Amino acid sequence: MITLEKPMLDAREYQSRAPTHGNEGKCIFTVDVEDWFHILALPRMPDVSEWNTLPSCVSRNFHAMLEIFRDRQVQVTCFFLGWVAERFPELVKAAVEQGHEIASHGYSHTLVYQMTPAQFLADISKSKRIIEDIAGMPVIGYRAPGFSVTQDTPWFFEQLAQAGYRFDSSVFPGPRQHGGLIAGNRHPSSVETAHGRIEEFPISVASMLGRPTCFFGGGYLRLAPYGLIKRMSKRVLGEGRPVIFYVHPREIDPAHPRMAMNPVRRFKSYVNLDTTRRKIEQLLKDFSFTTFNALLSQRESSGVH
Ligand SMILES: [Zn+2]
């Protein structure tokens, strides 16, 4: 464990100084529980005040996902958007009932770098409180919309710790549209802040043509053939890192409504939606899974930080 000297953690310090942990040997399957209209950075996006007026498909799709997880007997991590939890509390309860890990995706789905530290703290505190009240258990994990932790948000970890979170899975260790920390640490690591420690589990990437690429969620998971995803997953595990898969409920529903966007974004957002369910089922069959909490407990009992 390294205690950083500066009270406000600089993201660049995190990249170069954070220690790494050993081989976890397992994968973590995560779901960012949000609706079809929560796609980011579009020219015309509905405001949070309009969300209630839009048709919703998150409930139907999330229940369908829960069925897949139950069939495969896999415990996953559900990063609930606070707004979704508030509007559909039964989804949180159903996930708790099945023994899944409950975590937070913030309340308003705002990119971290578009908020001030105070706005960010308010957003993540609100979602934590709402989800905890419904789940009846502490919520200690967070994932940022669009993995939007950048060099411009050096206060990120400190605010998370202040809100009472203990782990995070938001750092994309490479260049990316909404965020990313170039040359970021690819391994899980501990980040000390003035308000306590955050365990960071970065988004999994594998190098393709020298570029860190995530085959384990989003457009690449839908676009890449299953054999390639499986090979890349094994490569990440072989490098001593857990593979963290991420999906959204809308991605198993080719019939969900579409947002207006340019052709490139349209391709990235909607390509191969009809393949996602099959890929998820196959991944759950081919790999063994754990949860963030289980890894944290394992570390604490072995004294590794
Ligand atoms: Zn999201």
Would you kindly provide a written description of the structure presented here, covering whatever features stand out?
Helices cover 38% and strands 13% of the residues. The protein is of the alpha/beta class and 305 residues long. It has one domain: Glycoside hydrolase/deacetylase (TIM Barrel, Alpha-Beta Barrel), CATH 3.20.20. It has a four-stranded parallel beta sheet. The protein has a four-stranded mixed beta sheet with strand order 4-5-7-6. Helix 2 packs parallel to helix 10. It binds zinc ion. The site of zinc ion has 6 residues, from loops. The site of zinc ion (ZN) has 6 residues, from loops.
Task: Identify the CATH architecture.
Answer: Alpha-Beta Barrel
User: What compounds are bound to the protein?
Assistant: zinc ion
Name given to the CATH homologous superfamily: Glycoside hydrolase/deacetylase
What's the level 1 CATH class? Alpha Beta
Helix content range: 25-40%
Shape: globular
Mean pLDDT: 87
Estimate what percentage of residues fall within beta strands: 5-15%
Beta strands, count: 10
Strand order of the largest sheet: 3-2-1-10
Alpha-carbon distance between the two ends: 5 Å
Helix count?
A: 11
Low-confidence stretches: 1-24
Helix and strand run: HEHEHHEHEHEEEEEHHEHHH
| Rg from alpha-carbon coordinates | 18 Å
Q: So what's the oligomer here?
A: single chain
CATH topology: TIM Barrel
* Major sheet attributes: 4 strands, parallel
Structural class: alpha/beta
Number of domains: 1
